[in-house]
Amino acid sequence: MPDATVTSATSPATIRPEEAAHFGALAAEWWDPKGSSAMLHKLNPVRLGFIRDAIDMHWGGDIEGAKPLAEKRALDVGCGAGLLCEPLARLGGEVTGVDASPENTQAAAAHADGAGLDIRYIPGELGSAGLGHFDLVTSMEVIEHVEDKQAFIVQLAAHLAPEGLMVLSTPNRTLKSRTLLIGAAEAVGAVPKGTHHWEDFVTPEELETLLEDAGLSMGEPKGIAFSVGKGLHLSDDMSLNYIVTARHRPA
Predict the structure, then answer these.
(1) What is the pTM (predicted TM-score) of this model?
(2) Are 170 and 244 in contact (CB under 8 A)?
(3) What residue numbers does the annotated binding site for S-adenosyl-L-methionine cover?
(4) Which SUPFAM superfamilies match (predicted)?
């Protein structure tokens, strides 16, 4: 298992400054469901449904319980302004959010304070923060933006407790995702221009290899698809986006 005390001296940089600047410029609008992060607001309930089911299956908790993360530490990497951190805190977790952009963590902290939620937010590289282990590690739509994808996955693995659960989501690199997530979505303003670079998208097969090389085993991925009737929803169709769990491999 990778050592949890990853430091800036031992961990390669994963942040692309231009990506941090791009998302930092959107910080003020992050919590506006009709603003530049509107797509994330639509995506968040779908991801949360998957995460809640994964939590219940992993720990065998009460599926009706309101606080399945009680007494558990949760880490969201690439947290933006806290769209996922806040629901995780309401599920009972002791939540930490890390983001490349100081503007995002400032906006996240201000919003959490206004909501009466105790969430710790940290800007910068995960590997240099010295945060230790977490029961739940999440990173939503982030790996496609990092410089060194293998180093990033190793950092996530280093922060995952031995019996912990990881949840990742990312766009798939397909013709459909190039056409819809970049071409159409940016053309109509659903996603800010320059948000995505198709060549950086990661296929499920590639992600599985990255996870295996970091000592993790990947669960069965689930697609996040779009239809006019259902909007964004969990699906067997992974051609646009997918979400998946990972765990440490048994010793």
Answers:
(1) 0.88
(2) no
(3) 47, 78, 99, 140
(4) S-adenosyl-L-methionine-dependent methyltransferases
Number of Cβ atoms within 10 Å of the Cβ of 209: 15
Tell me, what CATH number does 209's domain have? 3.40.50.150
Tokens at residue 176, please? 């459909």
The whole domain housing 61 covers 17-248
| Residue that has been written with the tokens 């669960």 in this structure | 219
Q: What is the pLDDT of residue 24?
A: 64
In the annotated binding site, the residues are 47, 78, 99, 140
Give the residue from 181, 129, 123 showing the smallest Cα distance to 155.
129
Domain count, the chain: 1
Any domain includes 104: yes
Q: For the packed helices 204-213 and 149-158, what is the interaxial angle rounded to 10 degrees?
A: 50
Spatial CA neighbour of 79 closest among 38, 132, 128, 40: 40
Task: Split the chain (251 residues) into runs of 10 and give each run's mean pLDDT.
Answer: 36 66 69 83 94 96 91 96 97 96 95 98 90 97 92 96 97 88 57 69 97 98 93 95 96 73
CA distance 94 to 200: 32
